Automatic annotation (TrEMBL), chain B:
Subcellular location field: Endomembrane system; Membrane
Keywords, alphabetical: Membrane, Transmembrane, Transmembrane helix
Every NADH-Ubiquinone oxidoreductase (complex I) chain 5 N-terminal domain range: 66-115
Protein name: NADH-quinone oxidoreductase subunit L
Coiled coil: none
Sequence intervals crossing the membrane: 6-23, 30-52, 81-102, 114-131, 137-156, 177-199, 229-245, 266-284, 296-317, 324-350, 356-373, 393-414, 434-459, 480-501, 535-556, 638-658
Organism name: Mesorhizobium liriopis
Xref: Gene3D superfamilies: 1.20.5.2700
Family matches, as PANTHER family: NADH-UBIQUINONE OXIDOREDUCTASE CHAIN 5 (PTHR42829)
Its membrane topology: Multi-pass membrane protein
UniProtKB/TrEMBL annotation, chain C:
GO MF assignments: oxidoreductase activity
EC number per UniProt: 7.1.1.-
Its membrane topology: Multi-pass membrane protein
Keywords from the UniProt entry: Cell membrane, Membrane, NAD, Oxidoreductase, Quinone, Translocase, Transmembrane, Transmembrane helix, Transport, Ubiquinone
Function (record text): NDH-1 shuttles electrons from NADH, via FMN and iron-sulfur (Fe-S) centers, to quinones in the respiratory chain. The immediate electron acceptor for the enzyme in this species is believed to be ubiquinone. Couples the redox reaction to proton translocation (for every two electrons transferred, four hydrogen ions are translocated across the cytoplasmic membrane), and thus conserves the redox energy in a proton gradient.
UniProt-recorded name of the protein: NADH-quinone oxidoreductase subunit N
Quaternary structure and interacting proteins, as annotated: NDH-1 is composed of 14 different subunits. Subunits NuoA, H, J, K, L, M, N constitute the membrane sector of the complex.
Membership in a protein family: Belongs to the complex I subunit 2 family.
Subcellular location field: Cell membrane; Endomembrane system; Membrane
């Protein structure tokens, strides 16, 4: 719910009406419903599929606010890569999720209570939520009007300048993630033959092939 | 010289106490005894220089002891005639007891400890008698108490000895409490604890009658505002309370018979000759104070007479040889207090002096008897020892005739007791005191009893048929010379101390001898009057002695059946006496058991259940409970952990919303 | 932007150096292989040391990258501590991980990257930098905790920490988004500006709670502490030592910076939260540790309790309080490193032991070790005149001066309860029957333990200059 237009931001609230309103409520409702199904579904594969549906609806909400780049990235990265990976993992690792969940169910009443309290408070808070009156004046990086600057370009404007530091740090985080994945999963087993490209490239005919004279009728 | 007298015993104690076990028993004995011999000889020299010579009071400053604001107390040795008399008593008896103990304690494995304690006691006693102020006296007073405790409980593996030691200590604490309050009172009244200053101010302290300023309250005691006269009386009575504890006067006498659990030389030294006379010495030393409080002196007379007759009656029926002598001591101390109460201080000190000789002789003699009959103390299991241990027998007889006061009335032929005890009885006759007449009567009766139980002791122990087992009788043997020689010396004292010294103490050369060490008011003329009593009064103690002797002779030599028949015909009286007037039972009921109940209650309920239960134990138990429940939360399940986090966030959010927005 | 970039890079040069060093080390390790572990470890220690010297001696105050990166005396103080703590654990851990056969070249590299994350956290001037630093640091620790792949417990510890860490990151991000939604900014200075201009807004307080919850998870404060005992116990001991020391310190520094810089205008709100968390942590840390027999688990609860004491200083919201926090972190770091040096030395021929009962009678079998450990335990319990006492003294003093009497009293009471289990360790070492000594300590552990013991013993002597440095650091916020 970012302020999409500078002018409207002054009033402190953004009014939706017409077709955008219809789509907003559609996307929002489906997103919430499918998010609920992610945890409610018995079959883990169904859960992942609901997760993908949630991503799609979130992408739709991004689109409504004019953030088309984020919408596409969400689809490409989360739906195209992460969720599909999840799907593979869930299908390949035959984990009995029902058993895992069974223990958790006895805490459902307390969990529900805590959840309801939190939700209730959130509703109270967000019901009276207001942006700072001077938001327009104080916003760090206001979104430029869509007409002047495309969303993707606007992101590019700040990503490599204003947020250079955070961007570079994200790179370091990814490096750690990569190292971590390798450290935790890479195993050198003695009885597994591994591809050694250097060795392959360095091969010469002398080492690779052996020429034998084969006499007819005698075999090797 | 005076330092040597006081500090040689301390030196002996330190050497033997610290290194005794390394030195061995014999060197320990020789060191302490050697020092004591030197100290004793020096004491006699001091006696001749100070008491019999021209010297006035000698003071030797040792060091500044206390300097707390108005309270200043030096450690100073004060040697006047009174101290000199005490010095020779203490050091002579102590030396003889040291030597005697070499023989008596021969079989004990802890001799170095014993001799160290003996020397410690002697030092503390010397501190007491040489004190120059009340604080110093209290130091010695407590020192002898400590040494007495250690020596009574010397055989600490015997439960009865431990109990007796504790009893002696605790009962003495009661007296000491009064003594301390008395010292405080003196400090309040005179602003000092120094004897010289107190004595100098005492005569002018009580305003002359009609002076008009007597009404001012100077002391608040137990809520009573006391004017000067009453304050002085109360202070004197409190001081006397200390003397009652130390000198075993009714009703604080109960510890003395029990103290006989200690080794016999200890009984001779501490519980006959020296420590128990500390109360007598204290009152004599403070005569300048007591002389101004007629009420206090009257009370002292009463307590003394009561103790004299009480102890004498109890002594009649006791069967333990040492207990008989212990009650005798108690009784004789009563005599001394009667003399003190009458203002006849010199007679009290004279009796103290002679009593030390013959009572130590009796104790050491009884020790010799006990030694002879294999540590048996019950006279019912003795008898017929006269032929077997004749020396001891004769020594005991000398002690007895000295105690009973054998002598020819109206002459100067007599034993030590003849002079000192009879002087007290005669003094009681002429005393100006509400209780003087009563005291005279009681003392004469007590003299009968004294004679009776003393001869009873002799007859039961040495005459008649042997009642001990054949085996014991077979082993009976005379004591070695190291034990007998002290007896000889004491016997000389018991026989001749009276005849030699009575002129000095209570006779012609009174003033030249005492040189003001004892204070008497001008109107106190008892010293003059007691010489001039009717003949019958002079004869009374002598007759009492004869009656006692013949009764004892009749009961125990001529018809040994009589005592038993008498006891059977008067069972109530017999039990009353045998149980010492039920004092112990009374105290047990009044103090000991309630105190134990309170202690038990405070221990089990107060300390155990309330303080420990709610305090350390309870707290730690609650901490353990909390720990268990907290640790149980740590299940190891991931979703529990996540759950706790969520609950935490929810709680915080709720708090921030609700807690701040009412 | 470019002129700004040049000065920004200059200001953040120690961080850049570390980032490059990490990558260079990684390349060395990858090309040489497992043989290079010792080399890479040594170089990593050198790099950390160089960075520490750089930060301490050759950095100047200022803000870089549009305020995302802040360098001041507080950051300098905390960074030196973080670098020193990391270097020390690397030094201590090498022999241990080699003995346990997971001495990969990635281990030192991950520690260097983790330290980089801490430095970013310490210097964070923006919610984004905060989050990035936190994730960089956390992710490295998740991996480190699970780095002993052959140990089930290590793997479990890593996974638990990771999942709960993800939850806490979610909370943190949610809180940040609420704050951003209200103020329109992620920069601390701008947030403070916006908060100062307007009245208190409930939604923003909501965001504050979530942000603090995310940070409290990192410093293992109650009720976000649940991971601590399991992870401390399960992770390899050098990793536990690392986690207990430098990252905790960095998270505290970050919390101080967020509360002091961004949320200063609503101090009344966050102080309540901090007080609650502080009391809960002190109480739980004191009580729960009593039941522990595993010494690493005991140290986990001990660390929870100590975090509660640190937060007492923060709750005071004064320069004195921040100084107390800074000193506490320094002293706690030294004590923790010393204690873990000791724990790593609990080694018999049969292998490492972790149960406190194994310490029985150590005083007779290895008196020097037992003596230093006794000092450490006394110091952790806060017995004067050791350093641990002064740490508590300063935070409680700050709380008293800030009129937080109840908090100070509760702190003192819980430290009394907490003394129980420290004293129990001492009792086991000195009064129980010996069960046999440990193998001799290796040189580096001996050095760390010795330094730690000397520090806490002699702190009273040179506490003055250290206190002045801490005072100057605290002045950054006031």
């Amino acid at each position: 719910m970012l302020p999409t237009k500078g002018g409207e931001a002054h009033s402190g609230t953004v009014m939706l009406n017409g077709l955008p309103a219809v789509f907003f409520y559609l996307f929002a409702f489906v997103a919430i419903a499918s998010a609920f199904m992610v945890i409610a579904a018995r079959n883990p594969v169904h859960s992942v599929l609901f997760l993908i549906l949630t991503f799609f609806n979130a992408a739709g909400l991004f689109l409504l606010t004019g953030a088309e780049f984020l919408a596409m990235i969400l689809l490409v990265v989360y739906v195209g890569a992460v969720a599909v990976l999840f799907l593979f993992v869930v299908m390949m690792l035959d984990v009995d999720f029902a058993e895992l969940k069974s223990g958790a169910l006895q805490y459902a009443p307390i969990g529900a209570l805590v959840g309801i309290i939190l939700v209730g408070e959130l509703i109270v808070v967000l019901g009276g939520y207001a942006f700072s009156p001077r938001l327009a004046a104080t916003t760090g990086q206001p979104t430029p009007p869509l007409a002047e600057r495309a969303n993707t370009a606007a992101l590019g404007d700040v990503l490599y300048t204003h947020y250079l530091f955070a961007f570079q740090l994200a790179g370091m985080v990814l490096l750690v993630a990569m190292i971590g994945a390798i450290v935790l999963t890479l195993r050198h087993k003695a009885n597994v033959r591994r591809q050694d490209i250097n060795q392959q490239v360095a091969r010469v005919p002398e080492t690779a092939i052996e020429i034998r004279k084969v006499r007819t009728g005698e075999g090797v | 010289m005076y330092q040597a007298i006081v500090f040689l015993p301390l030196l002996g104690f330190l050497i033997v106490g610290l290194f005794g076990n390394r030195l061995g028993a014999r060197p320990s004995e020789l060191i302490t005894s050697g020092f004591m011999v030197v100290a004793a000889v020096l004491s006699w020299v001091a006696f001749f220089t100070v008491a019999l010579g021209e010297h006035e009071t000698v003071t030797v400053h040792v060091l500044r002891f206390l300097d707390l604001g108005a309270l200043q107390a030096d450690w100073t040795l004060r040697i006047d005639t009174l101290t000199a008399v005490m010095l020779i008593v203490v050091n002579t008896v102590s030396t003889l007891v040291h030597i005697y103990s070499i023989g008596y304690m021969h079989h004990d494995p802890h001799r170095p400890r014993f001799f160290a304690y003996l020397s410690l006691f002697t030092f503390a006693m010397l501190m007491l008698v040489t004190s120059d102020n009340l604080v110093q006296m209290f130091f010695g007073w407590e020192g002898v108490g400590l040494a007495s405790y250690l020596l009574i409980g010397f055989w600490y593996h015997k439960p009865s000895a431990n109990a007796a030691a504790m009893k002696a200590f605790i009962v003495n604490r009661v007296g000491d409490f009064g003594f301390l309050l008395g010292i405080f009172g003196v400090f309040v009244l005179f602003g000092t604890v120094d004897f010289n200053t107190i004595f100098a101010n005492a005569p002018t302290y009580i305003p002359a009658e009609g002076a008009g300023e007597a009404g001012g309250a100077v002391l608040n005691f137990l809520g009573y505002q006391l004017d000067k006269q009453s304050a002085l009386t109360v202070t004197c009575l409190l001081l006397f309370m200390g003397a009652m504890g130390k000198s075993a006067q009714v009703p604080l006498h109960t510890w003395l018979p029990d103290a006989m659990e200690g080794p016999t030389p200890v009984s001779a030294l501490i519980h006959a000759a020296t420590m128990v006379t500390a109360g007598v010495f204290m009152l004599a030393r403070l005569s300048p104070l007591f002389e101004h409080s007629h009420t206090a002196l009257t009370f002292v007379t009463f307590i003394g007479a009561l103790t004299a007759i009480f102890a004498a009656t109890v002594g009649l029926v006791q069967n333990d040889i040492k207990r008989v002598i212990a009650y005798s001591t108690c009784s004789q101390l009563g005599y001394m207090f009667v003399a003190l109460g009458l203002g006849f201080y010199s007679a009290a000190i004279f009796h103290l002096f002679t009593h030390a000789f013959f009572k130590a002789l009796l104790f050491l003699g009884s020790g010799s008897v006990i030694h002879a009959v294999s540590d048996e103390q019950d006279m019912r299991k003795m008898g017929g020892l006269r032929k077997l241990i004749p020396t001891t027998y004769w020594m005991m007889v000398i002690g007895t005739i000295a105690l009973t006061g054998v002598g020819i009335p109206a002459t100067i032929i007599g034993t030590a007791g003849f002079f000192s005890k009879d002087a007290i009885i005669e003094g009681a006759f002429v005393g100006h005191n509400a209780f003087a007449a009563l005291a005279f009567t009681l003392l004469v009766i007590a003299a009968v009893f004294t004679s009776f139980y003393s001869w009873r002791l002799i007859f039961m122990t040495f005459h008649g048929k042997p009642r001990a087992s054949h085996e014991v009788m077979h082993h009976v043997h005379e004591s070695p010379p190291v034990m007998l020689v002290p007896l000889y010396i004491l016997a000389v004292g018991a026989l001749f101390a009276g005849v030699v010294f009575h002129d000095f103490f209570i006779g012609e050369v009174y003033n030249e001898f005492w040189k003001g060490a004892l204070y008497t008011l001008p109107e106190n003329e008892i010293l003059e009057h007691f010489h001039h009593v009717p003949l019958l009064v002079k004869l009374a103690p002598f007759l009492a002695m004869l009656i006692g002797f013949f009764t004892a002779y009749h009961f125990y030599i001529r018809s040994p059946e009589t005592p038993r028949r008498l006891a059977e015909s008067q069972p109530g009286l017999y039990q009353f006496l045998l149980n010492k007037w039920y004092f112990d039972e009374l105290y047990d009921f009044l103090f000991v058991r309630p105190a134990k109940r309170i202690g038990h209650f405070l221990w089990k309920t107060g300390d155990g259940r309330i303080i420990d239960g709610l305090g350390p134990d309870g707290l730690s138990a609650r901490v353990q409970d909390i720990t268990r429940s907290v640790v149980r939360l740590q299940t190891g399940y991931l979703y529990h952990y996540a759950f706790v986090m969520l609950i935490g966030v929810a709680a915080l959010v709720t708090w921030m919303m609700v807690g701040n927005n009412f | 932007m470019l002129p700004d970039l040049r000065s920004s890079i200059a200001l953040a040069s120690p961080e850049l150096f570390l980032a490059i060093a990490a990558m260079v080390l990684l390349m060395i390790g990858v090309s040489v292989g497992r043989k290079a572990t010792l080399l890479v470890t040594s170089l990593a220690i050198v790099a950390l040391a160089v960075a520490a010297v750089w930060v301490a001696g050759f950095s100047h105050d200022g803000a870089a990258f549009g305020g995302m990166f802040v360098m001041d005396s507080f950051a300098r103080f905390a960074k030196v501590l973080a670098l020193a703590g990391s270097a020390a654990t690397l030094l201590m851990g090498y022999n241990f991980i080699r003995a346990a056969r997971f001495d990969t070249i990635e281990f030192p590299v991950l520690i260097v990257l983790c330290t980089l994350g801490m430095m970013v956290m310490i210097s964070a001037g923006d919610m984004l930098a905060l989050y990035m630093g936190l994730e960089l640091q956390s992710l490295a620790i998740y991996v480190l905790a699970a780095s002993n792949r052959d140990s089930l417990r290590s793997t479990e510890a890593g996974l638990k920490y990771f999942v709960l860490g993800a939850l806490s990151s979610g909370m943190l991000l949610y809180g940040i988004s609420l704050v951003y939604g209200y103020t329109g900014n992620t920069s601390f200075a701008a947030i403070a500006q916006a908060l100062a201009a307007d009245q208190r807004q409930l939604g923003l307080v909501f965001g504050l709670v979530f942000v603090l919850a995310g940070l409290a998870f990192k410093i293992s404060a109650v009720p976000f502490h649940m991971w601590t005992p399991d992870v401390y116990e399960g992770a390899p001991t050098p990793v536990t030592a690392f986690m207990a020391a430098a990252p905790k310190m960095a998270a505290i520094a970050l919390t101080v910076r967020v509360t002091m810089d961004a949320f200063e205008p609503i101090a009344a709100d966050w102080r309540q939260i901090v007080i609650f968390i502080s009391i809960a942590s002190m109480a739980l840390g004191s009580f729960a540790a009593i039941g522990q027999r595993n010494i690493k688990r005991l140290m986990a609860y001990s660390s929870i309790g100590h975090m509660g004491f640190v937060l007492v200083g923060l709750a005071a919201n004064s320069q004195e309080g921040v100084r107390g926090v800074a000193l506490y972190m320094l002293i706690y770091l030294v004590m923790t490193l010393g204690t873990f040096a000791f724990i790593m030395s609990m080694r018999r021929t049969t292998g490492h032991v972790e149960n406190t009962d194994e310490l029985s009678g150590l005083a007779s079998t290895n008196p020097v070790m037992a003596t230093v450990m006794t000092l450490l335990m006394f110091s952790l319990a806060g017995i004067p005149p050791l350093a641990g006492f002064w740490a508590k003294w300063y935070v409680f003093l700050a709380a008293i001066n800030a009129q937080l009497y109840t908090l100070a009293v509760i702190g003192v009471l819980t430290s009394v309860v907490g003394a129980y289990y420290y004293l129990r360790v001492i009792k086991i070492m000195w009064f129980d029957e010996p069960v046999g000594g440990f193998l001799p300590m290796s040189g580096e552990l001996r050095a760390v333990l010795g330094f730690s013991g000397a520090f806490i013993l002699l702190y009273i002597v040179f506490g003055g200059p250290i206190g002045r440095v801490a005072s100057a650091a605290a002045a950054s916020f006031f």
